[in-house]
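#struct-pred

JT: dropping the chains for the assembly here, can someone run the whole complex?
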Amino acid sequence: MQRIGVFVCHCGTNIAATVDVKAVAEALSHEPGVVISQDYQYMCSESGQNLIKDAIKEHSLTGVVVCSCSPRMHENTFRKAAAAAGLNPYLVEIANIREQCSWIHKDIATATEKAVILGRAAVAKVHLNAPLTAGESPVVKRALVIGGGIAGIQTALDIAEAGFDVDIVEKEPTIGGKMAQIDKTFPTLDCAACILTPKMVECSQNERIHIHSFSEITDVKGFVGNFTVTIKKKARFVDETKCTGCGLCTEKCPMKKVPNEFNMGLDNRTAVYIPFAQAVPKVATIDPNYCLMLKTGKCGVCSKVCSVGAIDYKQTDKLVEEKYGAIVVATGFNPIKIDKYEEFAYSQSPDVVTSLELERLMNAAGPNGGTLLRPSDKTHPHTIVFVQCVGSRCDDEKGKPYCSKICCMYTAKHAMLIREKYPDTDVYVFYIDVRTPGKNFDEFYRRAVEQYGVHYIKGMVGKVTPRSDGKLEVQASDLLANEQLHIDADMVVLAAAIEPDKSARPLATMLTTQMDTNDFFTEAHPKLRPVESATAGIFLSGACQGPKDIPETVAQASAAAAKAIGLLCKNSITCNPCVAHSDELMCNGCSSCEKVCPYGAITYIDKEFRMPDRTTRIRRVASVNPAVCQGCGACTVACPSGAMDLNGFSNSQIMAEVDAICK
Amino acid sequence: MQEAMIKRAKELLADGTVDRVIGWKKGEFVYDHTPAVFTSAQDIEENFVCDELTSANLSKYLVKETVREGKVLAFLKPCDTYSFNQLVKEHRIDREKVYVIGIPGGPKLDIEKIKAKGITGILSVKNENYTLKIDTLYGASEMPFYEAVSEKCANCKSKKHVVYDELIGEDGDVLDSGRFETVEKLENMTAQERYDFWRSELSKCIRCNACRNVCPACTCEKCVFDNPSSGVENKAAADSFEENMFHIIRAFHVAGRCTDCGECSRVCPQNIPLHLLNRKFIKDINELYGTYQAGENTTDKAPLNDYKMDDCEANVVHERGVE
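RK: done, full complex below.
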């Protein structure tokens, strides 16, 4: 005979304000098997837990139902309490009457009725709960960082510092990411390369860090502590181990008209190239879309000039499989494409540029050697108009609904740098709001206005029209003065919104992590677990989780590293005992479950069975490896005969819940 | 055709290639051909039959036959080879233990369609230039051949053998059949009309289990309908369970594995068009996940058991279900 205790939590007023908790406790006390039903203000508090522990002992409970918040919140708390009182922790069931009930209903009668139903379902389930024992699985003491921008670099350095091996997988030929393209950083105006490149070098020199550049993730299997990741090392047609980065091939390459991505296409590079002087690894890469040898079979100049024989036109993509205990995602961001904003004439005039393009135009290593010149005629611009929020805070489909966060600050930086270097230049900034919270940020913006005389105008630019005399006619509105403005500008700079890198979504699918509607990775808890994904063992670093500036990115990168180190320090982790198992007498051996298992936990064995007529028969049956199974339940729904079942969430338990709800 | 098959079967038995032969044998009535296992040349000589009335799909019988010792010769029509492949893919048939001879398919006749013409007491049925000459207890009768062709042959999807060790006759091609036309008609009904249609059809069910027992996709060691702990066990038509659930559960169980062999409707004594449920699933799978033919080979991943990056999102499936 089951002896079940029901404990209804008020959660202060979180539940009690919309659910009549006393009525719920009273209603559930009449359910079959329930011997005690109580309510309490905070069930998760120590005295609340003691209430449960005492009841388990006093009433010899065989099952506990806690009507409270989401099991993601306090299931563990109550399981531990039950275990402390001598009850198997898996005999505790949670009825979520907060997130799924009190928070979403306004009417007390409705919410109370629903809370009773949810409680009844949990009681029906706990009747069928079986005691379970958790096993342990080992942790691979190696981390993977996906993305080699400043976020990935910082995370990798911190993990390596703690004494663990860490691999960086970067899709470009060099690590460094967006920060490598930036000229100066706000609010201190120090040179980005000067603070970034030493970290890049540190990565390459640290013997615990292994950089897979020009590589992508193609497959992820396994689970926390034991991921198996397939890395595709794309063919760069240069032997990384031989290339010294001398650059002779890039000088001699006859194909010199390839748009240079690093300079945002503002100048050209050769078909064999090293993205920039401080690239890490400093190894040449051949672009197969432009290389004459690879396209036509005629050339081979680079191969002839290379003194170490590093050029290998026959190189192919290579797949490498590695095992990791923890994975940190640091896939970063990109500015959105702004071709759709025809009003700003970006596609019509080369003098309309994005802010990242301006970074390159002003950078000493950029196409103009650091002198700001108009891309069209290489003359010095005298009037520059900055347009903020191009695609940010946008309610139509062209842009993004969110604030890109970094644009206000970098635009103030650009305006200030231009006024500092070229005081004869008029700078206008059109803004919706200026958002500069952060240490020394607002002071920075005010300096641009007050000290450098940048014209900040609240309003939007309506139209940019390239004129035949080379000027850009900017029509805009000044909302504060309530007047229309016409400015003859030499250049227009657009602060394009930022979006997550396109590689993020397929990666999220491989990692089984969640994303929001904008393709930013979702953190496990927005306040309390900001660097963990909801999937155990997967951590988030930098702008892949949301728009961030460099200081924030670095802070989050180190936080993600700390979380990963915390995991890697453990020798083993407790497994989830809620795993699948197959009823061999019912199993057809059809392989449906094996095909849907994302963890590769299912294998098949030929097993001898005694048949009813006393003969023996060898049958092919499924066998689940409980250390690998993560209890996702995919196999139980794929199994045509119903032979697969999940501990703790058995088909009969779920049907009992459904029956209780429909009663 | 029948002579060639008998000759080859006897040869393969004699030279030891196979130990048994699975084919069809004559029944009490002329149209009563049933699947049978033959072990001797004499048995084959006397009882083996293959004509316009040997419709039964032999693939499923190989599940049990390949558990036994020795090798079995199976005569498979094109549609049966799809079922065969699907069962091999699901590890239900041991391919090594079967010698497959592909034979030409239909069109096979549906005796019910002949009887529906009021022709009874049938003694023999002969096809002469696409006119059926029917000899009955009450005299000779005749009808156009195509009016008696079975539903599954009228909408034949393929004349191609997807697996065989040798062929008798020629191999054909995959056909562009109109097999989804009726499904489209059902889709174009209102929800109420469709509900009424299925209620009127499924309420005829007498729960004889013939559809399940003949279905090559239904080979579970223990069927959920026979399993007291499955929650849907029900051995007799005790309530309206059949009307509401039995056929729907069965259609879901075989979804993505059904090759559209049409056996369910063929054997249904109540003439319920059960194949339409399965065809609806096949049509949906084709439209949502790209054309897929179960049993076409033994290697392709089934769309319902596979995840691809470009699979449609769940809301697409949901939206299609909204009236």
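JT: nice. Chain A has a mean pLDDT of 94. Residues 375 and 540 of chain A are 38 Å apart (CA to CA).
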